[in-house]
Design brief:
By secondary structure, the protein is mainly α. 40% of the residues lie in helices and 8% in strands. The strands form two sheets. Strands 1-4 form a two-stranded antiparallel ribbon. Strands 2-3 form a two-stranded antiparallel sheet.
Length: 154
């Protein structure tokens, strides 16, 4: 995997609280909604566990199984979705309910999330100043690489 971080930098990465979720397709001025349909903490935890397990990447895609047209591909997608528990009642929703490339899947009977991140963190640890942490996070998510360099010196 190509990266601009050194081995020591990669291995020194630590989770940030609250997690910084870069919504790349929303633009610099995007302000996350107060109530979100996903929790960045869940995704951060999942990615952190994958990183710590150091599981090798899957083998490259077998190019001999290419589909010639949508007619061949559609049953393959449907069968895979059914194996994963999808069926009548499954839904796709946009991340933060804002149209774009990031989607959330809901299986039949699954209720769409409604999370007030700050309230959840405040309830979990009321001693910490979450209002300041969230205000700082909002400035981080909208900074350019040049602004990051100026702020951190890195």
């Amino acid at each position: 995997m190509t990266t601009c971080l050194t081995v020591n930098e990669i291995n020194s990465l630590r989770p940030e609280m609250p997690p910084v979720a870069h919504n790349l397709h929303y633009g610099r001025d995007f302000v996350p909604p107060k109530i979100r349909n996903w929790m960045p903490l869940h995704y951060m935890t999942k990615l952190l566990k994958c990183w710590q397990a150091k599981v090798p990447a899957p083998p490259p895609y077998d190019k001999t199984t290419r589909f010639k047209n949508w007619k061949q591909l559609a049953p393959f997608i449907k069968d895979g979705s059914l194996r994963e528990g999808h069926g009548p009642g499954s839904r796709l929703t946009f991340l933060d309910n804002i149209p774009g490339p990031l989607m959330l899947e809901s299986k039949p009977g699954q209720v769409e999330g409604a999370y007030d991140e700050q309230a959840i963190y405040e309830k979990a640890d009321p001693r910490y100043d979450w209002a300041t942490a969230f205000a700082e996070r909002e400035t981080i998510t909208s900074e350019t690489p040049q602004e990051h360099l100026k702020r951190t010196g890195k």
